[in-house]
Each structure stands twice: as structure tokens, then as C-alpha cells.
Amino acid sequence: MTRQIQLCRDDIDVAEEHSKNASKLSHRHRIYNNERQISLCNYRRKPFQLLVQYIAAMIPTTQSREELINYCRHRYKDNRIEQAKIDEFVKTNFDENNAIRWYSRDSFIYRLLNEAGRLESVDLIYVFRSFIHDLYTQLANLPRPTNIIHVFRGQLMSQNELTELQQNIGKVFYTNTFLSTSLSYEIACEFSGLGTNPDLNSVIFQYELDESKKPKPFADISKDSYHHDENEVLLSMGTLFRLQSVEYIESMNIWYVELVLLEDGTSMEQHCSLLHQSPKDTPILLLFGQYLEDTQQYTEAEYYYRLYLEDEHVLMNDKFVHQTYMSIARVCKCKGEYAAAVETLDMAWSCCTPDNQKSLIDILKLKNEVFKEARLWNDAVETVQQLLETMPLSDYERAQALNDMGEIHMQNENWSEAMKNFQMASDVPPPANYSVEKRLRSRISSNLELSKIGAKTSQLAHRNNQSSFLQRYLLLPIAQTSRTAFDYFHSIFLTSSDQS
């Protein structure tokens, strides 16, 4: 059946912990509960399984295979037994038809690849990219059942982990490594411990697999496994499931968890909130960088972006080069390294041809964001001015730029210039599909009113030679985002104006 982990963290060897039958099973059936195998899809980020999807589509190269071998030799440099297995691997594995056999064997491949999945380590996943491709390909080439089937796996779980499951019924999960299951309910029961451990819960997972949903590959690997075990079904890394139910079976003293396979396309986008898909021809190093950037691992993201630029085969006129410089600038901005961000954007600019107007506009927009975040208002004004005077902007982009200019002037309490730009932004004709920029229009309108109040308040303060209540508070973020606050300050101003 299995040797992998699923939603657990306590270091328990189930095979040695419970029944006598388990002792007859091979070493590869050990399940360590601290090695979590299924993760909840995180709605705040692009999920790990999307990255795996790109990896699986990569064609292995001699370099990628050599990187894997060198890494494994380094990790097991003092282990003669594993070094011998690595020698054997080199002789036999440069063929995708051997991937299942190696993965099902108790060896360095299984342990290191599962470590990469459990930790969701981008660096390790990258090292194993050739083997992941091979394993996916071999699974995809094996016959799959045409009808719906149910597979099982059993394990011990702590109460906290069981509670986590109970609180996430209906949520989406994905496998963060290749998940080994069994067609045999009885084998799963053996691994669950059948309620014999007083400190942990016995849990049986049932997975409903439906090939019609076109999921990532899964197959019965009995004939291809190193041990030729019967009833073993291997699921691909990144397979999506919805948690249907968590029920306690009192008569057996076990918990029964049901999960249902999800489609690999539309459902992934619906349930994991993927915000964008990268082009299929995007270089893998950039995909890794995008994943790390989306998961706020900015230093690591910058490493992969720069690694791409250092490739001797990448030409300066490559269509991805200026995009990569922009990506580096974004992560520098997120790290607060504003000077580096501006310098990198200048490099992006130099890589763009004059006819690539869209990219030039995007570079100026990002540079403006950097200057504003760094509170370099004069530089921000110059950048927006360049955008307005030299770029062919759409009406929406022009209104957006004018609003940005107004907000910059408002930060400097340059009320007349702020009003001027907000008014020009307001005068830009709306598009036919007005709903597209409704939020921007609302913001422009609010900013225009605030700038008028700010200008009048400034006049009153100057007349009284002191800062007014309004001058100190009008520009607080809440005043720009809350209509209630705006109305409150507006009423105070009107009262003060009448009294003066």
C-alpha cells in the first residue's frame, strides 16, 4: 500500500506500531506522521500544485539529470549503500519507464522527493524536475479505470490534526507529493491501527477517483512497482480533492474521511483562486520566480529571476528579459530596496524597443509606484509627467495617471495642483463599459472633493496662523476610504467656514 504521509506531524511508524500483519509489509510502507502529504489549498496565493504542473511538462535535459545525480551524491556522500544505489540509478534511470520502479523502492529517490514535496521546497523541486517529469509520464501512459473507483489509506493522527480536518469540510486539498493508496480497504485498516493506540486517532481515508474529470495521472502500479505489490494505486503530485466528510465509526473506534477528486482545470481555478496563468512558453526559471514572488518569498524569487538573466543562451532582445527585470524590480520594491528597484527598471527600459509601448508604459507605472512608496514625491511627479506626455495612453490609463498625479500633489499639500489633476481626471470621458472603471471614477470624485476641502482648510489655517483640526486629520487614510469619515470632516469644515 503506502509509505507516504498525509496531514500528520507526529513521528510515528505505523507499520511497526500496530498489527502483526503490518510487519509482513515491505519497508516502503512506513508512514511518518510528521510528513504531511495533503495540504489545504491556500486561497491567498498561487498554489504549489500549479508549479508542479509546469514541472511535469518540462522535457528533461542532460543538464537537469546531472544536477539531480550530483545533488543526491552530495546528500548521501557518507552513505556507501545509497551511493551504490545512485550508481545503479545512473545506469538504469535515464528512461521514464523506470521511474515508478525507482520511486516505489526504499531509496534516496523516494526519500528526497517526498522531502521536497512535504516542505514544498522550490529549490528541491527544481532539482528533481527531470524525475518528476518521468514519473508523471509513466503514470500517464499506464491504463486507467474507466469507471469510478475508491482507493484507501490508513494512518494515525493527532487530535489537533483531526480537528483541522473537521473544520475544513468542503475545502479543497491537494497532494504535495506522489500519494500511494490501496484498492484494499483491509490494508488501509491495518495501517490505521484500528483504535489500538490510546494517544492517536485511527483514520481511514477514502478517495473517490473519476477518470472522466480528467485529473492528473493516477494508475495501478502493481506490475511496475519495485515490490510488485497488488492493489497499489499511485496518485500524481498536485492532485486536487474536496473534503466531503469526517465521521467517527464507534463500533470500530476509527475515523472515516471521504475525499472526492476534482477536475484538474476549471475546478482548480474556481477553488484555489488562481489569478493568472503563465504562458506555456515561459522559461521554467521564471515560473519558479513567479511562484516564489506570489508566495512572498522575495529573496528566493529574485535568485531565480537573476539566474535566468545569467543564462548564456539568453539574449538581451529576448522577449522575457525586460519582463524579468521588471519582476526583479517588483521584489526589490517589496523588500524596501527602492534604489535597486529603480536601477533595475532602468535596465528594463533599455531592453525595450520603442515600438513596445505597452511594456514602456508598464515600466513607468511601476517606477511611479516605487517612488510613491519611497515617498520621493518629486521623482514620482516627473515619472507620471513622462507617462502623460510621451506615452499613448488609453482613456482609463490617462485618468489613472492624472489621479496619481493629484494624489502625489495632495501628499505635498499642493492643493491647487491636486485639484487641477483630479478635475482633468474627472473630465476624461468614461468608456462604453463604464463598470470597468467605476471604482477609479469614485476615487477620483472623492479625491477632488478632499482636495477642495484641503485647499479651503489651508486658507483658514494660514489666516489663523495655526494648523486646524481638519488640516491634521483630513489626509488620514480613513478619510480617503470611508465615506462616513469624509462626510464628518466635511460637516466640520462647513461649520468652521460659517463661523469665520
Summarize the structure.
With 500 residues, the chain is α+β, with helices and mostly antiparallel strands.
What descriptive keywords fit this protein?
500 residues; alpha+beta; Toxin ADP-ribosyltransferase, Chain A, domain 1; Serine Threonine Protein Phosphatase 5, Tetratricopeptide repeat; 3 domains; six-stranded mixed beta sheet; three-stranded antiparallel beta sheet; 23 helices; 11% strand; disordered N terminus; disordered C terminus
Strand order of the largest sheet: 1-3-8-9-5-2
- Runs with pLDDT <50, length 5+? 1-36, 42-46, 266-277, 466-485, 495-500
Q: Structural class given helices, strands, pairing?
A: alpha+beta
**How many structural domains?**
3
* Overall morphology: elongated
Number of helices: 23
Beta-strand share of residues: 5-15%
* Mean pLDDT score: 78
The Rg value, from CA coordinates, equals 29 Å
In CATH, the topology of the largest domain is named: Toxin ADP-ribosyltransferase, Chain A, domain 1
* C-alpha end-to-end distance: 85 Å
How many E-type strands? 9
Give a written overview of the molecule:
- With 500 residues, this protein is an alpha+beta fold.
- The protein folds into 3 domains: 14-271, Toxin ADP-ribosyltransferase, Chain A, domain 1; 278-392, Serine Threonine Protein Phosphatase 5, Tetratricopeptide repeat (Alpha Horseshoe); 393-500, no CATH class.
- Helices cover 53% and strands 11% of the residues.
- The protein contains 23 helices and 9 strands.
- The chain has helices at residues 14-17, 48-57, 62-75, 80-92, 99-103, 108-119, 122-127, 129-141, 159-166, 185-192, 266-272, 284-294, 298-309, 321-334, 338-351, 357-373, 377-390, 395-411, 415-427, 438-464, 469-473, 477-481, 483-499, and strands at residues 38-40, 149-157, 172-175, 179-182, 201-209, 218-220, 232-235, 240-249, 254-261.
- The strands form 2 sheets. A 6-stranded mixed sheet has the order 1-3-8-9-5-2. The chain has a 3-stranded antiparallel sheet with strand order 4-7-6.
- A hairpin with a 4-residue loop joins strand 8 (240-249) and strand 9.
